[in-house]
Amino acid sequence: MKVIVHDLEPEKFLQAFPHLQNREDVGIIAETDGPIRNCIGCFSCWIRTPMQCIIKDGYNDLSHRFDGDEVIVISRCVYGGYSRFVKNVFDRSIGGGTPFFEIRDGELKHVQREKKEGESPNFNVYMYGNVTDLEKKMITGLYIANKANMGPDTTGELHFINDVYEEVPL
Amino acid sequence: MKFAMIMGSPKRRGSISAHLIEEMKTTIADKGEVTIFNALEPEQFEEVLSCDRLVFVFPLYFDSLPSHVISYLEQLNAFIQEHPPEKKPSVYAVCNLGFYEGYQTKWALGRIQCWAEAVSLPWKAGLGIGAGPFIPHLPPEARKRTDKGKEQFLQLLLSDATGDNIYTEPDIPKEMFVEIANAQWTPQLEANGLTVNDVMNPHPRQN
Q1: Is the Cβ pair A108, B114 closer than 8 Å?
Q2: pLDDT tens string for chain B (207 positions)?
């Protein structure tokens, strides 16, 4: 399953990449169901209804949707990180992991579900928009941290691009 | 001296960020006026920018800022572009996380630094507090490094000084911390009629 998360105008994105529509092997996560609400830090997706967010705004199943063997994130660079929507997808999908801690490569990480052992994704991030040197440094650190949190054998690369429609290989 | 504490946790109860703000407010009460703002309510920007110091206090969410804090920063940036402030308040940040290592907040604190750069306000320093939610429950001897880090940070804040980010860890072995942290979930799961197995092997997708 290929999962694409992006913060572009949803209609324009589908017009640019029509072959991605109505595919069972491709999931697209964009702000298509009205404004996404922010995570409220209640941990219900861990300890009350595992993998289900209690905020019923059309984005409550992100823990399931933001899960694939190939994950592609396309985000505007905002202050050295992801944009509001893309970051919200990460925040609202923490139920995809567990609340338990383990030490991995010397530092704490969340324990992953047993079925995911050895199934870490190929995780590629495409950052567009103006990026300062400081932002580049912060995004690079963030990407490495994200990768480590997504599983010990996560692969992929971080890309800084100018034009999503020309440079992202979809 | 006016301090703006910008609360970046969305929690209404039990927020460690709120606890840290109250702690700082108590400690610096005799040094100036502290006003608390909430990033969930992006308003009162004029009042925020009338302060001498801005302190963003937030939890680490997935290696970075909670998304609503990004939204707040963008709106405050837009306000600054439209209404350039007379003062140039100094910018500080405090981030706490559940993991042991305070340094895992580096990229989140860095985003506040990037924001400060974008709006041409002076970035000063950040504090990353490891094991944040557990610290208030640990005995004093296990909080020594954390307390020292907080003290160093407040010194920078009160003197308007620039410094390297400060990262703290609890004074207990990492392996012991993992055991303590993991054990605290069990009673919460049981209270909801769940077991560890329910978390590790959840029910199929329900919409």
Answers
A1: no
A2: 999 999 999 999 999 999 999 999 999 999 999 999 999 999 999 999 999 999 999 999 999 999 999 999 999 999 999 999 989 999 999 999 999 999 999 999 999 999 999 999 999 999 999 999 999 999 999 999 999 999 999 999 999 999 999 999 999 999 999 999 999 999 999 999 999 999 998 876 654
Q: Closest Cα of chain B to A14: distance in Å?
A: 24
Residues B81-109 as b/e (b if ≥16 CB within 10 A, e otherwise) read: eeeebeeebbbbbbbbbbbbbbbbbbbbb
Round to whole Å and give the CA distance between A140 and A167: 19
* Model pTM score: 0.96
- Could you please state the CATH topology (level 3) that the domain comprising B2-172 is classified under: Rossmann fold (3.40.50)
Distance CA(B7)–CA(A44), nearest Å, equals: 22
In order of their start, the domains of chain A are: 2-167 (3.40.50)
Intervals of CATH 3.40.50.360 along chain B: 2-172
Query: Which residues of chain A does B122 touch, with a Cβ-Cβ cutoff of 8 Å?
Result: none
Distance separating alpha carbons of residues B165 and B150, to the nearest angstrom: 11
Interchain contact A53–B (C-beta under 8 A): no
Does B65 lie at the interface with A, CB-CB under 8 angstroms? yes
